[in-house]
Design goal:
215 residues; 5 helices; Glutaredoxin; alpha+beta
């Protein structure tokens, strides 16, 4: 026959288990878990907060972190002498920009091209380049240090090849498009090859997700 001490111990254990179950039920009811991130490329629950950086836009104005706040910014890193990836990606961003307007997506957005070839890409050259794709696209250039102040935060790997006898050279860079949210955080990555309709669908998913996460 169990002793009174063992009975009290058993009763205490049962009580603690019941209490724990009750706390778990209360937490599940009143503090539901954050929605699971099931969107390809979504940097959640730990989106990277960008810090200060300094560059210039196609009009020679400062392009800093403040220019990313309050808008959804789609950043692509490339260079104006790029023979293939850059013109294709900027064409997709131009189509995507039009689709946002056609669908009346309620989210202020901007397309941003950042040159990783400061030796050749002056503000004038970048301005003429982005305007070919879209009058509203923002072109960013600057010194090597200014560009690196942004690329290093996002983790963009850049490799400049040796020039040929005519002085021409290629630059290896990321082919992805990076979405910075309205708080200046790296939220979503669109890997190559991009498609305007697919980007639109994933952007809508991200907007819905963030509304639920912030609720």
């Amino acid at each position: 026959m169990p002793s009174p001490q063992s009975l009290r111990t058993t009763a205490l254990i049962v009580g603690l288990i019941a209490f724990g179950a009750g706390i778990g039920a209360f937490t599940a009811r009143y503090y539901p878990p954050a929605p699971a991130a099931r969107i390809e490329g979504l940097m959640w629950p730990n989106p990277k907060q960008l810090g200060p950086f300094a560059a210039v836009d196609q009009d020679g104005r400062p392009f800093t972190l403040d220019r990313l706040l309050g808008k959804w910014s789609f950043l692509f890193f490339g260079y104006t002498h790029c023979p293939d990836v850059c013109p294709v990606t900027l064409s997709v961003l131009s189509q995507f920009e039009r689709r946002l307007a056609e669908d009346k997506v309620d989210a202020p957005a901007q397309m941003v091209f950042v040159s990783v070839d400061p030796q050749r890409d002056t503000t004038v050259r970048v301005r003429d380049y982005v305007r070919y794709f879209s009058p509203g696209m923002i072109g960013v250039s600057g010194t090597e240090a200014e560009i690196q102040s942004l690329t290093s935060q996002i983790g963009i790997a850049i490799l400049h090849y040796d020039p040929d006898p005519q002085g021409n050279y290629l630059v290896d860079h990321s082919a992805s498009v990076f979405l910075i949210d309205t708080k200046g955080r790296l939220l979503l990555v669109f890997p190559a090859p991009q498609n305007a309709e697919a980007m639109l669908g994933r952007f809508r998913q991200a907007l819905d997700f963030m509304k639920r996460a912030d609720a």
